[in-house]
Amino acid sequence: MARRTVTWMAAAVLAVLIVPVAPAAAGGGCHQGVTQGNGDTVEMVDACFTPTILTVDPGETVTFVNTDPMAHNVTSNVWGYFEEMNEGDAFTATFDQPGIYPYACAYHPGMTGAIVVGSGTGAGNGETVSIESVDLPQASPVVKVRTVTQESSSAPIAIGWIVGGVFGLALGLGIGFVLNKRARA
Description:
By secondary structure, the protein is α/β, with parallel strands linked by helices. It folds into two domains: 2-22 and 158-184; 36-152, Sandwich (Immunoglobulin-like), CATH 2.60.40.420. It contains two helices and twelve strands; from the N terminus they run αββββββββββββα. The strands form three sheets. Strands 2, 3, 5, 8, 11 and 12 form a six-stranded mixed beta sheet that branches. The chain has a four-stranded mixed beta sheet with strand order 1-4-10-9, with no helix packed on it. Strand 9 and strand 10 form a beta hairpin. Helix 1 (2-18) runs antiparallel to helix 2. The chain is rod-shaped and about 75 Å long.
């Protein structure tokens, strides 16, 4: 009887350690598809830049705000904010010349976006983007905390953990049952 209990317990622990408990919550790439928008704000929420493609006129300023509980950044070839941005952090960039300015989060592969300035035709290489120096911070910091009025939902992640845990436990119990039957035979 004690051997059977130990076998069941070992199988359950092994299954919980081997089977992923929840689907990956990171990765980016807008899980609901690419979004397009106008305005002056790009939010980082659910490992996605929203909108994914933002269209602005030359000379407009865009604010990037992290409303996600996980850290992100905004990286590009010449412009961006390369440091960790935590929930509530924001930075702004002004796009003077027409073009397409792609960017990504270095922490989450597939979390990408683009600023389309004007018609989208032009240099778009980032050299015409005005931001404060990341290397030499000025008296006023580049990243400023902003109060966010809409919180992201963590319900899908919690449901994933519960479903994953139940699946892992069931698999472990099933393995223990098979091992127990073999031990008896």
